[in-house]
Amino acid sequence: MKVLRALAVAMLMIVAAASLFPQLITGASYARQFRELPDSPPSRQHWLGTDDLGRDRLSRLLYGTRVSLLLAPAAALLATLLAALIGGIAGFEGGRTEKVVMGATDLFLSLPWLFLLITVRAAMPLNVSPGASVMITFALLGCLGWAGAARVICSAARSVAGADFILLARASGDGGFRLLWRHVLPNLRPIVLAQFWLSVPAFILTEANLGVLGLGVSEPLPSWGSLLKDLGTFDGISASVWQFAPLLLFVLVVSSFHLVLTSEELPA
Amino acid sequence: MKTRLAFFILLTAFSMRSAMAQAGGELRFCLHSEPKTFNPLMAEDDSSEAIRYLTGGVLVRLNRQTQQLEPELATAWKISDQGKTITFHLRSNLHFSDGTAFTADDVAYTVKQLMDPALHSPVGDEFRAGTGAVQTRVIKKDQVSITFPAPISGMDKLFDQVAILSAQSPKKEMAVLGPYYVADNKAGAYLLLKRNPNYWKHDAAGRQLPYVETVHIDIQQNRDIEMLRLTRGEIDFINSIDPEYYDKVSSTNAAMANDAGVSLDSEQMWFNQVPGSPLSSYKKAWFTSTNFRRAISESINRADLSRIAFRGHARPAVGPISPGNKFWFNSSLQPHPFDQKSALQRLSQDGFRFNDGVLRDRDGHAVEFSIITNAGNKYRERMATMIQQDLSGIGIKVNVVTLDFPSLIERITRTFDYEACILGLMNNDLDPNSQMNVWLSSSDNHQWNPSQKTPATAWEAEIDKIMHAQASSLDLKTRKQLIDRLQEIAWQQEPFIYLVNKNALSAVSPSLRNAHPVVLNPQVYWNIDQLSLGSEIARNR
Amino acid sequence: MVLVLLGGFAGALLVRFAPGFGTDDAELDSRLSSQSIQSIRRANQDQAAFATFYFRYLGNLVRGDLGQSRTLQQPVAQLLCERFPATLKLVALGLGLGWFLGVSFAIATIMARAAYLDVVTGLFVGVLLCLPASVLALLFVLARLPAQLLLAVVILPKVYRYSRNLLVSSAALPHVLTARAKGLGEWRVLFWHIFPTVAPQFVALAGVCVSIAFTAAIPVEALCDIPGIGQLAWKAALGRDVSLLVNLTLLVTLITVVGNSASDLLKRSPSLEVA
Questions:
Q1: How many CB pairs below 8 Å do chains B and C form together?
Q2: Which of these, B95, B436, C88, C247, has the minimum number of CB atoms within 10 Å of its CB?
Q3: pTM, whole model, 2 decimals?
Q4: Alpha carbon of A120: minimum distance to chain C alpha carbons (Å)
């Protein structure tokens, strides 16, 4: 397991490095269209071939990795922290506080937040840069994605709040936020980590799905979501192996996150 | 003698086989959304129009293959009174699907409903010309005349869209005169149409049409799944297929793929020229400059758009009339050539300067604008991305913004908060009079600057005159000259930068007999009453 | 009840002030005259006065009239009645199978206590998480599997991940280690010592999964063309059909509140209270 974890860490570092310095791997721009070579197979000039507009797939994959690998975990972290704080406080306080907070959470879960995303996009100037646009989208996803986990965290926090060691900590003089931060939240780690690990791919795929409504990344900037979208078509069924590179990389990175974040070893 | 007998036996066997092939069976295909209405007068979306075509009986039918008008419920018609009156002689002894008799009263009733101003029928609006009421007169049980307040060019062809309603039937619009009637409708899932037992048409052998007993229409929005189902034989055709799927079908079974040639549809881009829009004044100045628009047009590589975005199944567009519309197309015009040098020269006439890879106007503003288009349409997204690269060649920065359709409509019709837009025009009418509401400067659909109180430019004033003149003229030669002039003005001024005309692509299963896909909609099932299924398919369904 | 009404109000507010509200595709139909287009715009503006609209809607709701869908031209009540069974079937199947598989995989991981199984299951679930719903939908159609099972594939990773982490952390608790040391069998340890500890969280997860399932039903139904309320919600969102969306939001809020309240009640039952 330690070996696997080390490999996972190495994998993540290699992917991060490649996405931060793509010019070291490929000289082609992610935007340039080689129009004489649309949908071409791998070659010396284009290691993963080109897409439907003749753009270098490897370059788009590396730059897309940068966008998704930076923003999706950031959004997932935001959602997870919000869930941990809100759910943690509600469960820890219990009583009326928990009722009100969880009621608000239920309401939050039910609302069609899609319209908020559309409204925010409409409020942005049309000439906003693709980078800024996608950052705002992920930030919104982070702000909106906490509600489901908050409920589970609240329940776990209530269980922990009634534990003996918490009683001991209170007797020792700990209270309020210190008690929550130092004793309760660390014991919620399994759920919090589960939420984080689930959110990263979920946000990447949500960004892809939002593209149908014009809320995803703007051309020509690539993202994993926009690259994966092409696989969900009839063409994708008979796609060649190299066209699955984004999916493969996505799976590898998510699996590496899983291995790195699985700190709880199975009991012997 | 023996030879004759053998020949007779063979002929009988063949006829019997044909008879077996043609009788019964269930035709299956998909619509991409459920019909919004079964009232044929209010059919506006594609699905409602499909149901209208399959169930509605019309007085005259435009043969989609020959593009000639043919008698249907009317055996003959005559236009008189300088193009204001049309008189129909109707077939006798016909009945609606529920048995109600068809008479001239039904035609009068239908026209009255159609022209009801409160109904706002899209088909009815095509008949509106001049002020005043429409008069219908039932001359005899099988003869009716309709008088409009002003002449309508191409009036007879418009009746191809008017499905006759029964004035008497308690079933209202569900009682039909067409080849099928709606037997079952599971909302969001499917529609089942059954053969109209009272359909009046018979084939040469005297057998009642249509051949196919039922039509099962699935509501299938997902085109990938639709494509999968076609390859598996679960459906019999795809009426309009995307270029990628066409290529896939073509590579696996070339006989299934049909390219009927260039369609009447076009894809175009336009700049916002609304004076009251919230754009900065220097951008308004750019967009209202003919030189600017022509330069942009010359900087777009239409051949690449056709070859790459549409996989070669489109051709560079010239103007508002597609080359597929052979009579009305102005063949003296060619697509603007891709010539960025010429584009820069044109721009320099307006004071633009190209330095260090950036184009600036006379006041030093870097030329940058956004193009909006509807999200989810991958062809438009591709074109926008390709135009983005093309224009970067002359130092223009383009931002591609895809929006969901309601947001886009709001920007181009209400707030006018946009700079450039790419959309398409679906054209099913050969007669350019149908584009009246696009070219009249006072119209709401005059996209680049709608609802003008007076024409903003001399060329728009000239277009207004042209459209009015051709609408009131009955002489085809005169109208052709006027429409040619319209196309010249559009070519020179580029209010719409026409990009491509798409090809009419469809896919038809080999089990479907007598299908001859054409350019006009509905491409595959235009002759629905003549279609038949292979005997094995007919038996198994 | 207050929550449900608030949910409807907030949902309607979001729709009302979203861009594109009050527009209609028909406005771009070049056959329509200016008068017809103006008439379409006026008809859509009837719902523009938001407060009036919502209170009138509530008044009609009390009388059982859920309003008329602008995009589908049918009564909302009829649409919901026709389509709810399909969604219910999808959600029930998806939740049931998703939970069964998710919890089973988590239990198998705990019971086997083999690192390789943990890794392999985690990777498998990771792959499911990474596959876009559109790819899954196509794969299901290719394999001729019922599209209803797609929801199970969406729910499974969440259930597995939470369950696995909860069970693992619970298995390391002192009382569980003591039970094992005393020689109790693995299944007994699982059912008598581990499950009771994590039961409240499981129940909370179940409550949340109900609302997640209904939300996930939207893309699943839209992709697979299942005529349920998820597909209806998608069409209503694209068409800014506020009548339909208000009703759907109310329904989803009601289901969420009921689901979570039920799980809260269950958590409070004596058998599930942690000693």
A1: 114
A2: C88
A3: 0.90
A4: 9
B345 to chain A, minimum CA–CA distance in Å? 25
**Pair (B458, B353) in one structural domain:** yes
**ω before B210 within 30° of 0 (cis)?**
yes
**Token match 């009404």: residue?**
C5
Chains A & C: contacts with CB separation below 8 Å: 183
Is 70 exceeded by the pLDDT of residue C46? no
What is d(CA B367, CA B354) in angstroms, rounded to the nearest whole number? Answer: 10
- Domain extent at residue B371: 262-502
Q: Which C residues, 130 through 149, put their C-beta within 8 Å of a C-beta on chain A?
A: 130-135, 137-138, 142
Indicate yes or no: CB of C237 within 8 angstroms of CB of A114.
yes
Q: Which amino acid is at A4?
A: L
Q: Is the pLDDT of residue B21 over 50?
A: no
Query: pLDDT tens digits, residue range A213-241?
Result: 777 788 899 988 888 877 767 666 666 77
Q: B278 with B425, same domain?
A: yes
Q: A234-238: which pairs have CB atoms within 8 A and are 24 or more residues apart?
A: A234/B223, A234/B224, A234/B227, A234/B228, A234/B244, A234/B245, A234/B248, A234/C138, A235/B244, A235/B248, A236/C135, A236/C138, A237/B228, A237/C138, A237/C142, A238/B248
- Can you give the pLDDT at residue A236? 62
Partner residue opposite C10 with nearest CB, options A111, A189, A201? A111
ipTM at complex level: 0.88
- At C239, the pLDDT band (50, 70, 90 cuts) reads confident
Average pLDDT in the B515-537 region?
A: 90
Nearest CA-CA partner of C45 in C22, C14, C16, C73: C22
Q: Please give the pLDDT value at position B288.
A: 97
On whether the CB atoms of residues B508 and B517 are closer than 8 A, the answer is yes
In a domain? residue B350: yes
Note whether C19 contacts A: Cβ–Cβ < 8 A: yes
- C-alpha A4 chain-centroid distance: 22
pLDDT, one tens digit per residue, over C240-254 is: 888 888 898 888 888
- Average pLDDT score, chain C: 84
pLDDT at A226: 85
Domain edge (last residue) among B134, B157, B175: B175
Residue B427, pLDDT above cutoff 70: yes
**Considering only residues 227 to 256 of chain A, which have any Cβ-Cβ distance to chain C shorter than 8 Å?**
228-229, 231-234, 236-237, 247, 250-251, 254-255
Q: Which residues of C touch A194 (CB under 8 A)?
A: 161-162, 164-165
B310: nearest CA partner in chain A: A52
Residue B88 is part of a domain; what is its CATH number?
3.90.76.10
Name the domain count of chain B: 2
C35/B117 CB distance under 8 A: yes
Distance from CA of A35 to the nearest CA of C (A): 28
Q: Which of C158, C166, C176 sits opposite A190 (nearest CB)?
A: C166
Joined together, the tokens standing for residue C47 give 């719902």
Residue B327's domain is classified under what CATH number?
Answer: 3.10.105.10
Fold classification of A2-19+72-262 (topology level): MetI-like fold (1.10.3720)
Statement to judge: residues B297 and B436 lie in one domain: yes
For chain A, the domains span 2-19+72-262
In this structure, of A205-214, B179-188, C163-172, C189-198, the range with the lowest mean pLDDT score is: A205-214
Reduced to 3 DSSP states, what percent helix, strand and coil does chain A have, rounded to the nearest 5?
A: 75, 0, 25
Residues B171 and B287 in one domain: no
Q: Which of these, B23, B181, B180, lies nearest to B541 by C-alpha position?
A: B23
Among candidates B404, B425, B438 on the partner chain, residue whose Cβ is nearest the Cβ of C20: B404
Tokens of B353: 């300067």
pLDDT at residue number B5: 52
Residue-wise pLDDT tens digits, B57-108 = 999 999 999 999 999 999 999 999 988 999 999 999 999 999 999 999 999 9
Chain-chain contact of B370 with A126 (C-beta, under 8 angstroms):
yes
**Nearest-CA distance from A21 to chain C in Å?**
25
pLDDT band per the 50, 70, 90 thresholds, residue B536 = low
B148 and B269 both lie in a single domain? no
Residue B68 burial by Cβ neighbours in a 10 Å radius (0-12, 13-18, 19+): exposed
